[in-house]
Every structure is written in C-alpha cells, then in structure tokens.
Specification:
- The complex is a heterodimer of chains A (about 130) and B (about 350).
- Chain A is an alpha+beta fold and about 130 residues long.
- Chain A is about 20% helix and about 35% strand.
- Chain A contains four helices and nine strands.
- With about 350 residues, chain B is α+β, with helices and mostly antiparallel strands.
- Chain B has seven helices and 19 strands.
- A six-stranded mixed beta sheet of chain B has the order 10-11-12-9-3-13. In chain B, strands 14-17-16-15-18-19 form a six-stranded antiparallel β-barrel.
- In chain B, strand 6 and strand 7 form a beta hairpin.
- Chain B is globular, with a radius of gyration of 20 Å.
- The model of chain B has no long low-confidence stretch (mean pLDDT about 95).
- Classes of the chains: A alpha+beta (about 130), B alpha+beta (about 350).
- The interface between A and B is medium-sized, with 13 and 17 residues.
C-alpha cells in the first residue's frame, strides 16, 4: 500500500472522511487516501452555516480536475462553521487534508452515530483493500 | 489505473496539473498504445480511402499525415482518424481504441478485394512525446534535429536503437511527436525518453492530462463531441471535409445539411460564475434547456473553467450568454473562441 497518513485519534468513514471530536462539535475532512485518489482539487462546495446534515446523505461536493464527487455526511447534525478558505484555495485539501484543508464543523444531533464510525486501524484496513496503486 | 477499451490506462502518474504544465512548458510522454492502426496497401488503396474519408487522399504526399473523418451514409462520424501515407500505395489510419473493430468492419465491407487491409493495432505501440522540448529530447536519442519531421510530416528513424515511425502530430495543442513502434520495443523507448529527457523536465503523463490538454485546444474526443449521430459540420470540422461533389461516403447527407441553419453546432464556453461544467450537464438559454455539455474541466493553463457543448445555431455566436445547470443550480457561462485562450 502506498504511504498514506492515518493520524491517531481520528474516526473515519468508509467514504474516506475523517472526524475529530472536539467537545460538543466534530470537525470533518477527507482522508489522505481520498485526496490522493481525487488528485488536484479545484473546487469545494460546502453547505450553509446552520443547515442540517443527515448521516449518509450528501452535504457538499468536491471536484478535482478529473471528476466531481459527493461529500457524504458522517453524522446528522447542524453545520456550525465551514472552512471559508477553501473557496479561494481548494488545494488546501491536497496540501493539508487533516489540517488547514478541513471541511466543516458540525454539532451532532445523535452522538450514538459516532459508534458506527471506523477507528484508525479499521480504516487503514479498508484502504488497504481498495488501494490499487500499490 | 483505469480500464479503457481492454487496456489498463494510467489517469495520472503524479498530478494532472503538473503533467499538463509539463506538456505546455517542457514535455510530457504519453503511452497511447490503445490507439488502433489499420494499414491499407496496393494500387487501389488511395481511391478506396478517398471514398471512405472526408479528407483528400490523392493530394496527400508520401511522408505526410492528415486528419479526417470516417462517416456513415447519414454523415454521422464512425470515427475521427489520422491518415498517414508511408509510400505511394501504403497508408495507415490511426483510429480510436474503442472504435477499432467498428472501423475495421465498416472499412472491410466497403473496399474491394484488391485493397489489402490489415489491423496491426496489437503489434503497434504508440508513444506521444508532446511539448516544446520534444525535438531536443529525440535528437539526443539518435536522429539529428534536421532528420526529425516538421509538423504533419512523418519519417522512419532509429530512435534509442528501435525502428520508429516518427510523426510530428499530436492531440494536445502543443508541438510534439507521435512515435509508432513495435510493441516489443515500446517499454524500452518509453524509459529511454524519460531518462534522456530528465534534464528537460519531461514527465510521464496520463489520460487525465491528455483530456485537459486536448480540451484547451478544443480538439474533439470521440464519444463526447463526436458520435454516429453527429456530422462534421455540426462539430465545426468543416475544414477537414473535402468537396462534397467528390462522392465520399456521407457526402450526400452532408450536402443536404450544408445550408441548414436550424440545426445545432458545437461551441466552446467559459464559466463566468464559479463552477465546473462536466459532460452531460444541461446548457440553458434564458431558462430553457437548449443543449448539453460534451466536455468540461478547469483549464490548468488558463485558470478558468471551460467546456464544449452543442447548442442551436442561433445561440452559438461568440459572447452569447448561456447557463450551465450544475447540480440543479444555473451557473452563468458565455460562448468563446476556440481554441480556448
């Protein structure tokens, strides 16, 4: 498997998003594997602040030079803030997917849903099964 | 890697943007061995091709290449091809991978038995070295710069120890070469070019960059801008169509369409508002759906989002305001000159 970054302490979805729990909010982004598979990211469309997300449903889109993909919400909740910097610098997702390239902050409405997410080892395994670049 | 017409094709080696920039500024090397080659030989080859193709064949001199289209009786495109004349009575067509079998079947049932037709697609590999540094790179692998052909000419040369038909053609909008070589020599040639081209900054490039490069140059891609329901006139390829009186297949149907101002035609557009048009998105004029996007992407060189699509002729003028429906939102666009600039 290629050398992707899997930081400890994060949760993941099978759709290659990461989730970091911070008090009553969670921060959401896409994983290193995802940004690598997408290639050069040129456009990120994020939801309005205070809009609602529903677990498993699209909340935005991410476009690379080659294709457009839906961003699926890992959790239901209310959008607390979005990463405004991505409007002018979508490439931050490529450069720093776990840092400056975060997508949205959410106030989860059902913290039980956190139980459905993958821990880093389970996610690493999910990527290994799908990675064709190795 | 992605499967394409039975081949495993790299979409990108490093990054589409980096590979794209390498071709525009230095050089990029593509493995396009999936493209098919159909050879024609014998004294009847030229008249047979003259009847099959929209481009003039008799006037093509030995050692030159010319772009043309293979049409059905209704004037729709079976394929778009590059015709090369290697000798007086030896030609080959470079055809799209997905169309090799279709084109060969079409051709074989329409040429007489005195024309020898051979599909050499599997034995022939094709590398495309595209970009301004291409000439200098090849000149370090054997041929002198003077030996290397000028635009739309071909020469058989020894390159890195392999016998290569070097054709000064391409599909990127940058100058460059297409290198037809035996499949047994292809990998060695690919590696040799990357090695000697290292100092020029040559990069291996994949299908992703090939697509953004050809889109900036507004070169049609079969299956997107061209298909069997689309004529070369609709696609804006008039200059690759010879005199309609010459009797090539499809000419009668084209003649009937030649004065028709009511049809649709291909336009290039750029997004005015933020958004990226993609193939199959709807094109609107004053709130009404008038056409569809055939190709679209953010242009790495121009830093804006561009696309191609079909609209009614009435809405095809330069500067025409249009909208592209992107995920149920109508985003402003306007018709611009092709190639994009």
């Amino acid at each position: 498997m290629a050398d992707y970054e899997f930081p400890d302490g994060l949760l993941f979805t099978r759709d290659d998003e990461w989730i970091r729990v911070e008090d009553d909010q969670v921060v959401i982004g896409v994983s290193d594997f995802a940004q690598n598979q997408l290639g050069d990211i040129v456009f990120v469309e994020l939801p309005d602040i205070s809009s609602e997300t529903e677990a498993g449903q699209p909340f935005g889109t991410i476009e690379s030079v080659k294709a457009v993909s839906d961003l699926c919400a890992p959790l239901s909740g209310e959008v607390a803030s979005i990463n405004e910097a991505l409007e002018d610098s979508p490439e931050l997702v490529n450069e720093s997917c776990y840092g400056e390239g975060w997508l949205i902050r959410l106030r989860p409405s059902d913290r039980q849903q956190l139980e459905d997410l993958l821990d880093v080892d389970a996610y690493r395994k999910s990527v290994a099964e799908r990675d064709t670049d190795s | 890697m992605a499967p394409f017409a039975g081949y495993e094709m790299p979409i990108q080696y490093s990054s589409i943007r980096e590979e794209h920039a390498a071709v525009r500024e230095r050089a990029g090397l593509f493995d396009v061995s999936h493209m098919g080659q159909i050879y024609f030989s014998g004294p009847h080859a030229a008249p047979a091709l003259e009847r099959l193709l929209t481009c003039a064949v008799a006037s093509l001199r030995v050692g030159r290449a010319r772009y043309g289209l293979l049409l059905n009786e209704s004037g729709g495109c079976i394929d778009d091809v590059m015709l090369t004349r290697e000798a007086d009575d030896e030609f080959f067509l470079c055809v799209n991978a997905a169309n090799v079998d279709k084109a060969r079947d079409w051709i074989e049932t329409r040429v007489d038995s005195q024309v020898f037709v051979e599909n050499r697609s599997d034995a022939t590999a094709l590398l495309a070295l595209q970009g301004p540094a291409g000439r200098a790179i090849l000149a370090r692998l054997g041929p002198s710069e003077e030996d290397l052909p000028k635009r739309f000419r071909v020469a058989r040369l020894e390159v890195a120890g392999a016998s290569v038909l070097v054709s000064a053609t391409g599909y990127t909008g940058s100058p460059g070469f297409e290198l037809y070589v035996s499949h047994t020599d292809a990998e060695r040639l690919f590696e040799a070019i990357l090695e000697v081209g290292g100092e020029d900054g040559v990069l291996p490039a994949g299908l992703g960059a090939r697509d953004t490069l050809r889109l900036e140059a507004a070169l049609p891609l079969y299956g997107h801008e061209l298909d069997e329901q689309t004529t070369p006139f609709e696609a804006g390829l008039d200059r690759f169509v010879k005199d309609l009186e010459s009797g090539f297949i499809g000419a009668t149907a084209l003649a009937a369409q030649a004065d028709d101002e009511s049809g649709r035609c291909l336009v290039g557009f750029e997004m005015i508002e933020r958004g990226i048009a993609r193939a199959d998105y709807e094109i609107l004029h004053e709130g009404e759906i008038v056409g569809r996007v055939t190709s679209g992407a953010p242009s790495p060189t121009l830093g804006k989002s561009i696309g191609l699509g079909y609209v009614p002729r009435a809405q095809s003028g330069i500067g025409q305001a249009l909208a592209i429906r992107i995920r149920s939102k109508d985003v402003a666009a306007r018709v611009v000159e092709r190639p994009f600039q």
